[in-house]
Write a structure and sequence with these properties.
ibrinogen binding protein from staphylococcus aureus fold; six-stranded antiparallel beta sheet; five-stranded antiparallel beta sheet; 21 strands; elongated
Amino acid sequence: MTKSMDSVFLAAIVAELQALLPGSQVSKVCQPDADTLILHLWNGRATHSLLIGATPGRARMHLTQSRPANPAAPPRFCQLLRARLRVLTAVRQSPGQRLAELAFHGPDGAAYRLLAELHGRRPNLLLLTAEGRIIDALHRRPGALPGETCQAPQAPGAPPAGAAAEPRAELQPAILERDGVPRLVMAPRPVGDQHREPFFDRPSAAADAYYLADATVGRGSERARLQTLVSRAVKRCNQRLQRIEAEAAAMRQGEDWQRMGELLLAHLHQVRRGMTEVEVDDLFAGADAPRRRIPLDARLSPQENAQRLFQRSKKARRGLPHAERRRQETHEELAWLASVELALETAANGPELAAIAAELAEAGLLPKDRQPPRHRLPTPVQGIRESRSPGGYTIFWGTRNRANDYLSRHLCRAGDLWFHALDRPGCHLVLRCAEAVGPVAEADILYAAALAAGCSRAAGEGKAEVMVAEGRHVRKPQGALPGRVRVDQFRTVRVAPLQPG
C-alpha cells in the first residue's frame, strides 16, 4: 500500500512553505539515507528543516522536527547541493500533480531549480539549471542523467477531484481512518466534540506525525548499512562455531582411538595384513561387554595400524585445546557484536554512528573505501554519560564499546562499584564511591543497577539481573575486543530497568 503524499496535501504543504521560507538561507544540507534529503533553512527568525523523501511508496515533502542520524561522509548528491545552493527564492507546485519545484540562488548568483518528482514507482530529486539542464539527480537513471534536458513528467491519470494550485480554506490537515488504515488527508473539520480524529494546525505537523508513526526508514541509511554488516558477521561467527563444535566432537574420540590401538596390540596374533577390520574382546569394558570391532587399513601391517591409531589419538588430544580456544574467541566475538548491535540501535546522531563504523573498521568488517575520516570521530570520553544517584554519588556509563573501555580502564577506581547487565549486551556503569565514608546505601546501588539494566538489551524486561563488582575485580584481558572485560568477583541484584532521563 502506497503512503506517498497526494497532490492535494502537497498543495497545502507548498502553501505553508510559500508563506514561511522564501528568502531563507541554506545553512546545511543532510542526506540521512539514499532516498531522503533534509535542508536546514534560516529565514531570519528560526531554522526550519525541510524533508524531501523519494522513497518508493513514501514520497513526501514537509517540514520536520525529527533529527535522523547522518552518515560520516556526505553522499554525492548531498555534497553537490551543499556547494550549489545558498538562498531559497521560491516554492512551486504543478497544479494537480505530485511535482514540486524549489528555486535557489547559488554562491555565484546563478539560478538553480530543485525538482521533486514525488509520483510514480520511482520518485526522484533533480538539480537543474535555470534552463532545465540536469546537473545531477538523487537517483541516476535514463532520463535523469547529468547533461540531459529535463522533460517535465506528467503524473499518470487525471488530477484528483479538488486538486488545485491553492488548497481550499475550509480543509484542514488530519490523519483519518480510511478502511481501517490511517491516511494523511485534507478534510473539513466536523462540528461538535464527538469527533475524535486528530486534526492539526499545520500540514507539516500532520505529515511529520504520520510518517514518524509509520517508522519505516529510507533505503540505504548509514544505520541500516552498518546493521547489515554486523548481521553478516554474526552469521559467519555462528557458522564458524558449528564447524568448531563438529571438529571438537571428532577430537574427543582421541581417547577411543588410544584404546583401540592398545586393544590391537594386545591381539596382534589375530591380525594379518590385508584385513579391513578385526573383532576382539574389549579388555577395558569387563567380561560381559560385547566384542569390539576395530577398522583396519588393508595396506598396513598390524603394528602400523596400531601406530596409526596412536597418532590419530595424539593429534586429537593436541587439537582439542586449540578448538576450545577458538570456541571461546568466537563466543567473545559474538558478545562484542551483540554490544555493537545495541549501540547501533541507540546511536542518536551521525558522529556516534561514525564511531561505531570506526570500531567495525578496526575489526576488519568495514570496506576501506567506506571508512569514516579519523579526524571527525568523537573521542571515547564523548560517549560517556553522567548522572546522580539518590544519595548524591556520581554515576558514569558508556554509550558504545570504546566509551565502556575508557570508563572501566581509566575512570573506575579500585573502591568504586561497577555494574553490567548479567548475560546481556549493555553499558558499563560506574558508581563513584571509592572515597565514601561508610558503606554505600542499598538504594544507591539499586538505582545504579536499574540504570545499567535500562542501558542494556534487558531494557524491555520487567526485571533484570545486574552484576555488581568492586572496581579492583574488573580487568581487561590482553588483546580483548573493545568493551570486553573479565570480572573475578561479583554479586547480582534483581531490579526493574530504568531508562536514563
